[in-house]
Amino acid sequence: MKIKIVGVRFRPAAKIYYFKVGELALALHDHVVVETAQGIEYGEVVVGPRDIDDATFKRALKPVKRVATEKDERTHASLLEKENQARQIFEDRAQTHHLDMHLVDVEFTFDHRKAIFYFTADGRLDFRQLVRDLASTFHLRIELRQIGVRDETKMFHTLGICGRTTCCSSWMSDFRPVSIKMAKEQGMSLNSTKISGVCGRLLCCLTYEDPFYHEVTRKMPRVGNWVTTPEGEGQVYRLNVLEEKVVVKMQTDDDETEIKTFGVDEVVKSGDKHVLANNRRQQREKEERQKEQQKGENSKTTAEEGKAEGGEKAAPAHNKPNRKHTRNKNASSKAAKSQNRGGADEDKSGGKGDGSREPRHRKRRHRGGRKHNNRQGKAKGGDKSREAQNAPKREGNGQSGKS
């Protein structure tokens, strides 16, 4: 089903929205009043009436309410004056609440129900109290939108490095993605001051010639390749993509080097020399990749060695010797020393098991007398304590020290 539509823009260089015309007679640059998701809006027709299939749009289009009258024009003019006054109020309120934000633009809806403030800031801000303050001042809904540097430049209508009004503020409705690869393919200097716009981002005009460069460079040989020309064989010295010409370095009969220019259609790849040149280039690229990979492996190995050294230093803390085995070794060494002394410690062991001193807290924990002596004998006597347990008990064991 065919419907008649028009494209309406609400701000200069803003996005274009489409509406159904209906029975109205509209022309290009007419001012109209339309209904949007945010309410009633005032805009300008930038795309003239045209018939289009209804299935092209995913959602049903809203109709144009009317052509702008004199009253609508006066209302729009009063809103512009109100926006200028709102700027000063917003800056004063933001300073009062100690918010570091820069106001870019203010927009009031045509039905006086909502005010939108566009601002920039270094990070995220808590402006809830500011919104309440503005709502109590203007007595309508307040919306604060944080925008980027490109949107800020778009609203300022400044001049670019070419001396003309920036494309984003004059005719571009949407921003296209720009990459540094586009500047490399176009042979531009990678100096940031030459390939960056007023906003500090890459120039939007880099995208204009990018499809042409893609198409032409497919047909052209690479720099360094050998080619056959109408005047003989030579090596590609430089490429002129815009003129679609190849600059070739050739050797003359007098062993002198000449630089000559040929069209893309006049240049043919030169058999074995072309293959050898490609092989050399591929070998260089392969060696560079191997070097980078080797550097990555070396750095990874160094990091692993650092971790291993740290693990070895920390290993003794995790592998603490068992306290029981340590006591057994100490007891065995003490028993050996006592034998060498001639049994001087045996008299002391009569009252306290093996004669070794235990910490005070262990004595408090075990107050069982004979039971305590047996445990100490097991812990510090080692195998000898086991033999002592299996041997027949002596009379008066554990009380010789008191008798």
Please characterize this protein's 3D structure.
This protein is an alpha+beta fold. Among the domains are: 2-68, no CATH class; 75-147, GMP Synthetase, Chain A, domain 3 (2-Layer Sandwich), CATH 3.30.300; 154-207, no CATH class; 220-304. The chain has 13 helices and 13 strands. The chain has helices at 70-96, 128-138, 149-156, 167-170, 180-185, 192-195, 210-219, 271-318, 323-340, 346-352, 360-365, 370-381, 383-390, and strands at residues 2-9, 17-20, 31-36, 39-53, 64-67, 102-108, 114-120, 141-146, 226-229, 232-240, 245-251, 257-263, 268-269. α12 packs across α13. 13% of the residues are buried. Residues 313-321, 336-356, 376-388 and 391-403 have low confidence and may be disordered.
Task: Tell me the Rg in angstroms.
Answer: 45 Å
Number of strands: 13
Major sheet details: 5 strands, antiparallel
Query: Whole-Å distance between the termini?
Result: 121 Å
Helix content: 40-55%
Spatial strand arrangement across the major sheet? 2-1-4-3-5
In a few lines, what is going on in this structure?
The chain has 403 residues and is α+β, with helices and mostly antiparallel strands.
SSE order and pairing:
Layout: E1 2-9, E2 17-20, E3 31-36, E4 39-53, E5 64-67, H1 70-96, E6 102-108, E7 114-120, H2 128-138, E8 141-146, H3 149-156, H4 167-170, H5 180-185, H6 192-195, H7 210-219, E9 226-229, E10 232-240, E11 245-251, E12 257-263, E13 268-269, H8 271-318, H9 323-340, H10 346-352, H11 360-365, H12 370-381, H13 383-390
Parallel strand pairs: 7-8
Antiparallel strand pairs: 1-2, 1-4, 3-4, 3-5, 6-7, 9-10, 9-13, 10-11, 11-12
Helix pairs in contact: 12-13
